[in-house]
Structure formats: structure tokens, C-alpha cells
TrEMBL record:
Origin species: Roseimicrobium gellanilyticum
Keywords on record: Membrane, Transmembrane, Transmembrane helix
Superkingdom of origin organism: Bacteria
This protein's record includes keyword Transmembrane helix: yes
InterPro entries hit by this protein: DUF1275
TM annotation in the entry: 12-31, 58-78, 90-108, 136-158, 170-191, 197-214
Transferase keyword on record: no
Signal sequence residues: none
PANTHER family per UniProt: SLR0142 PROTEIN (PTHR37314), UPF0700 TRANSMEMBRANE PROTEIN YOAK (PTHR37314:SF4)
Protein name: Uncharacterized membrane protein YoaK (UPF0700 family)
Amino acid sequence: MISKLPKWVGIGAWALAFVAGMVNVVGFLSFEHQAVTHLTGTTSMLGAAIAEGRGRDVMGLGLVIASFLAGAMLSGFIIQDSALRLGRRYGVVLVLESLLLCTAAFLLRTHHTSGMYLAAGACGLQNAMATTYSGAVIRTTHLSGMFTDLGISLGHLLRGLPVEPRRLRISWIIISAFLTGGIAGAAAFHWWSYNTLFIPAALTGLAGMAYGIYRHTRR
């Protein structure tokens, strides 16, 4: 049950959603004006580009989707589990995400579109890391599911039905973190432009190394 969620899950979810909010706002403010943390809008834009015969856009949007998918595939290959629990290779995935974001920052500074694909791949890595824990679906790079869970819970409250407080809490945690990350990312972008990506890169890299040390000491 979601009530069994340990405290570290909430802390980790907030940090990862904050990172995703920063990365996505940089994508929107970039020369490509492209979301990279989720694929619903990107897939709709791809459909429109195909219908209108805009070959360049079809290629670019298709590569964003393929990059996110490749990141998720790599995460699945490394972690090898669909359940969120300590002991898996999350540190490796976090360090890889950090390296992808650093490389993306360097490429975007020269207006190289491949930077967007690396950022999307980093988000695919991250989103695939945290999937299911005790019946709770946890997604840190997009909010549709969190707003849906929140709406369902609020609807149950209006009907006087029982609601799991932790489900409400995890929804608020991820929504607030993604929004806060977006605000921080937008503010930083006006000062540091694409160097803003080094902030989430540092956060994920440090977290990955710390997790690796933690795992080593627990053996």
C-alpha cells in the first residue's frame, strides 16, 4: 500500500521533480522552444508535422521522442526492475543523467540541436528510474498522472470516501517540486542561459555519487 512509502521516497521524488522542472523550462526557453521531459505534446506536434509535410520538424520531433525512449530503455537495462526499492543501480543512472545534461549544456550553448536530444534522453533515464512502489505510480518528469491522482483523491473527499493521505502528499510533492524547478530554471536561464543545465546536472551527479557511496558502505 502507498501508506508504506518510506520518507526517502518523498524526498527523492521532490528532488527529481525539481530537476525535471528546471530541465524542461530550459527546453521551452531555448532556441527550439521544445519540451523534453514528457512526450504527449511532442507526439501531437509530430502528428501535425507529418500531416503538414514538414520534414525537418518530423525529424526533430521524432528524435526527441526516440531519445526519451532510448533513455528509458537504458534505465531499464541498468536497473532491471520495475519496482522502486533501495539496492538497485540508481547511482549509475543518476551519474549518467548528470553527464548527459552537462553535454547537452555544452551543445546548446552553440545552438546545436543534438543538445535537446541528450536532455530528452536524460529525462527518459530519470523517469524510468522511479516507477512503482507499494502500488503508487511515481512519475517525476510530467504531471498529468499527479494531477489525476490529486483530482481523484479530492473527488473522494467530496463524496466522504476514505483517502490515503500519502497519495495526496506524493501528488503535492511532485507538482510543487516541478513548479519550483520551473521557476528556478526560468530565473537562472535569464542570467546563465544554457549553463542553467549544470545545476540539475550537479544535483543528479552528486546524488548519484552519494548513493553509490551509501550502497558501498551498506554491503
